[in-house]
Specification:
Distance between the termini: 21 Å
Shape: globular
Number of helices: 16
Largest sheet: 8 strands, parallel
């Protein structure tokens, strides 16, 4: 379906941008903060920094929020570091950490920016990890207590809440992201038990939010991407549907409907990966009622039927590149798509397709909480960053989002990655995503100056026009 001139986004649309605590804040041990699993890491890709200073947002939040206001943001999606609030994950709260987020939220509100709070973004307290992490039922209870503390502290100021960022990526790539320690006897089985515990924790947190904050809105935030069959061969179509169920619908079917996707459950049963349910789990899952769905989108996937010749299995360590699993699917290149410098396929039309698939299944309002282009941005003489490639990427994706809205999808916000440069999970500081350049490299902090990129000025105009793109 072609829309000649898609309309601007709805009035009150939440034009925003995103970050996460461990990638932007720094101040890893300041003011009583406890160690997270990210702080405790000792191994990083060669030539990349750790997260201990990051972009120093902790000390520069007022300067950053002023830039967000100048950019015209209507919303800022950020995460709260669990270990700033409860240093050991399950003990006494830390007043200094609680106060930091009050100050950040107050600063946002003073500039007319809606805070969108993610409760958990890849940074489990190390103290809980040492007690079994998400493999322990105690972590479920600790997360719910932590969520309740957030709701009571910030509930009068925050309307939009996100539970767990990219839970599906933590499970599908759990070894790469460090969710399961090296040497586990059956890491896949452990991961799907961890996954079940996270699903229960999320459901209980959503129910608690509705109990304590009846006017707030809360939802999950997985990474969702449409999956194409490599050809019209029926076997390829089945493989694509299987991978979509395992990658996408397992997580959202439980979050929205309180039950496991049947195809995904069949996959778990076939491979001996079905999780153990404790008493009350099913009731907790069924009682959760998300108010909207947030999702992150970077790339679509294309898969073929497995060949079962030993070449199906692979792993790049990169969650945006489908690789394959024996007897299930085989990742393939899509000849119709370009790739970026990191091998990710760029598919704006897939963004529209993903909107439609999610909305067709669940009929809940949708919010984009990550979408963006990482690149080796260069700071040129005169303190300028010419990132026309990022402007083109966003133009193409926003245009397809407008087409999705014209298709009838209820879209309430768009918060691309990222508001400012931060430390990428896999490629350090050098892989930049922000509208604002942070002047540091992997090991030289310099002065951490903030410099507006060309994309900053472009996005500023897009927001002012409510999404109407210049011809």
């Amino acid at each position: 379906m072609k829309h000649t001139t898609p309309p601007p986004m709805r009035p009150g649309f939440l034009w925003g941008a995103s970050t996460s605590a461990y990638q932007v804040e720094g101040a890893w041990d300041a003011d009583g903060k406890g160690l997270s699993v990210q702080d405790a890491r000792t191994e990083f890709p060669e030539g990349t920094t750790d997260f201990r200073v990051a972009s120093d947002h902790y000390h520069r939040y007022a300067e950053d929020v002023a830039l967000f206001a100048e950019l015209g943001l209507k919303a800022y999606r950020f995460s709260i570091a669990w270990t700033r609030i409860v240093p050991d994950g399950d003990g006494e709260p830390n007043p200094a950490g609680i106060d930091f987020y009050h100050r950040l939220i107050d600063e946002l509100l003073a500039h007319g920016i809606e805070p969108i709070v993610t409760m958990y973004h890849f940074d489990l307290p190390q103290a809980l990890q040492e007690k079994g992490g998400w493999g322990s039922r105690a972590t479920v209870d600790a997360f719910v207590r932590y969520a309740g503390l957030l709701f009571r502290e910030y509930g009068s100021k925050v309307r939009y809440w996100l539970t767990i960022n990219e839970q599906n990526m933590m499970i599908l790539h759990g070894t790469a992201l460090g969710l399961v320690p090296a040497g586990s006897a059956n890491p896949q089985r452990e991961l799907y038990q961890h996954n079940h515990h996270m699903l229960v924790a999320q459901a209980r947190a959503m129910a608690l939010c509705h109990e304590l904050l009846p006017t707030a809105r809360i939802g999950p935030a997985p990474n969702i991407a449409c999956v194409y069959p490599a050809s019209s061969a029926p076997e390829d179509v089945v493989a694509a549907a299987d991978f979509a169920a395992i990658r996408n619908w397992l997580y959202l079917d439980v979050a929205v409907h309180g039950r496991y996707n049947p195809t995904a459950w069949a996959y778990l049963a076939e491979h001996g990966l079905t999780p153990q349910f404790a008493e009350g789990d099913q009731a907790a899952l069924a009682a959760a009622r998300p108010d909207f769905i947030a999702f992150n989108y970077y790339a679509s996937h294309t898969v073929a039927a497995p060949s079962d010749d030993g070449d199906d299995i692979g792993h790049t360590g990169d969650q945006q590149i489908a690789v394959g699993e024996s007897g299930v699917y085989r990742g393939t290149k899509n000849p119709h798509l370009k790739t970026n410098a990191f091998g990710w396929e760029v598919d704006p039309v897939g963004f529209r397709t993903t909107f439609r698939e999610i909305y067709d299944r669940y009929r809940l309002p949708l919010m984009v909480t990550e979408n963006g282009l990482g690149a080796f941005d260069a700071l040129e003489d005169g303190d300028v960053v010419h990132d026309q490639y990022r402007i083109e990427y966003f133009s193409d994706h926003i245009r397809e989002m407008q087409h999705a809205a014209a298709d009838g999808v209820d879209i309430i916000g768009y918060c691309p990655w990222s508001a400012v440069d931060l430390v990428s999970t896999h490629q350090g500081v050098s892989k930049r995503y922000g509208f604002v350049y942070v002047d540091r490299d992997e090991f030289d902090l310099r002065e951490l100056r903030r410099i507006r990129k060309d994309s900053f000025h472009w996005y500023q105009q897009v927001i002012a026009r409510n999404g109407v793109l210049a011809p």
